[in-house]
Amino acid sequence: xxxxxxxxxxxxxxxxxxxxxxxxxxxxxxxxxxxxxxxxxxxxxxxxxxxxxxxxxxxxxxxxxxxxxxxxxxxxxxxxxxxxxxxxxxxxxxxxxxxxxxxxxxxxxxxxxxxxxxxxxxxxxxxxxxxxxxxxxxxxxxxxxxxxxxxxxxxxxxxxxxxxxxxxxxxxxxxxxxxxxxxxxxxxxxxxxxxxxxxxxxxxxxxxxxxxxxxxxxxxxxxxxxxxxxxxxxxxxxxxxxxxxxxxxxxxxxxxxxxxxxxxxxxxxxxxxxxxxxxxxxxxxxxxxxxxxxxxxxxxxxxxxxxxxxxxxxxxxxxxxxxxxxxxxxxxxxxxxxxxxxxxxxxxxxxxxxxxxxxxxxxxxxxxxxxxxxxxxxxxxxxxxxxxxxxxxxxxxxxx
Length: 400
Fold this sequence. Notes:
Elements: E1 8-13, H1 22-25, E2 32-38, H2 42-51, E3 56-58, H3 61-65, E4 71-74, H4 81-90, E5 94-98, H5 105-118, E6 122-125, H6 132-142, E7 149-157, H7 161-165, H8 173-176, H9 179-182, H10 184-195, E8 199-207, E9 217-218, H11 225-228, E10 242-243, E11 251-258, E12 263-269, E13 276-283, E14 286-291, E15 298-302, E16 314-317, H12 328-342, H13 350-367, E17 374-375, H14 381-388, H15 396-399
Parallel strand pairs: 1-2, 1-4, 2-3, 4-5, 5-6, 7-12, 9-10
Antiparallel strand pairs: 7-13, 8-11, 8-17, 11-12, 13-14, 14-15, 15-16
């Protein structure tokens, strides 16, 4: 392993559900060390103190901003991303913002504009761009195995939906806008990446079909998901201790027209018995479909015409990788830390992160209206050029 002469000093804001990323950033003597953690909750601060005893713990963001850190992981609830990231970017601290970028288009655009204006490096945590199933499917596309991509369908069976999203802050629109955005931002981004285009027009339908009628409610504010998660929480209609307020959908379906003509659809259900994503990518010479999305599962490729169902022409095993999400999480943090230190191009993209937010926001608007299509507002040309160029360093004159 390459040992840097000097460890990057890393801060963390928000020590909650995604706090496990600290393990990949806290490697004293190997390139990076978490030196300070900021969390407004007593539990978050206590958890951080227990896991990273050497780090300074604070509830004051100003203390973190003035602590001399080189990089920061913003892991707060989604609707606080811009509130924090704008300040870390203005402080000149290379910023990792967990996905989604934020829960409104305006907030997402504010983050991009701030990174552009300050020249501070911005990275968004779309870890699925490092997941083996996605990387391997993209490689098949790049190799031309199925010709030119024309359609992508994604079915997302969120078997843990009742435990993950309907018992805490995720259950309210004010915090997440919708689960098409909060949860779907991953898949929308993957669809964009595989299709090499961004959503231009979107429409959707959805409903709170199951969890809205569950009468057992609770204030879970002092708890974490690990306190209530269990495969025994089944069937969905018999879930216990759901959040007092639920105003998001538990089943949603969106259709997308991309700017390069590719057609895509994304279906998300939070009360399935199984939990995985199924992608179908159809090109001019064949199609790809994954069966399971974890290590050892299969990607199947059809490239021969048949008169009915046929076994695939090729089967690729999904690779393994340690450290969360098939190895995606350690790769994600390693890429961010390299980017924070050296700059350069990255596999994730702030523009793509904004476009995933925009598609999710407008899909929610469509499904809560009459299902009619919504047009995605364009990213300003100067921002598009800057981020597509890999956030090149600005001269002192331009930074003024």
